[in-house]
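Journal club prep, shared notes

We agreed each person brings one worked example of a sequence with its structure written out as tokens. Mine is Transcriptional regulator, putative. I'm keeping it raw so we can talk through how to read the token line rather than staring at a rendered picture. Sequence first:
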Amino acid sequence: MYIMKDYLELLSSVGKLKKFQKNSILFYEGEEAKKFFILLKGKIRIYKSTASDKEITLHYFNPPNFIAEMPAFKKLNYPANAIFEEDGEILEIDFINFQNLCSENKEFNFLLISSLFDKIKILEKKLSQNALDLRTRLLKYLLENEKNLDTISQKQIAIDLNVRAQSLSRVLKELKISELIDTKKGRIEILNKDMIMKELW
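Then the structure, token by token:
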């Protein structure tokens, strides 16, 4: 949400600046959402934990971005956990103070609505991805992250796609046999982008 850059100074007047180290938890699933946050620096991963302690990654957020404004707006509990994937900085905002700011500046209402629509789009994308088979999900992931594949480990891809490492390895082997990709030192390289796009579309 790049529009937020124009309002950060005003939002700072009703928020509290906080810094976090990598692997710090911003909030846990089930906690009362009295506050929401604006991510200023770093990266946050939103995830849920299963009964067997498996982590299911829902989304990553980069700055600047609203975090947890929907449960705060609806006066709900946080629906998932939030962890810093790297050192970061957030602006912590009490929702009541934000409501007062909205009453004084109507443009903030549109800012909030825009952010809520973004979250709905994220949810729709996640639901549509989960309906796809692993091969298709992986190919889409590789294209979407093509520029950063040399920095993404196979372990990270398994986490992002919420699959077991064994399942990912099996599909990677199939793609290598088809000469669509290659793997070097745990990193994936796309060999035939045209064929991948043809398979997907």
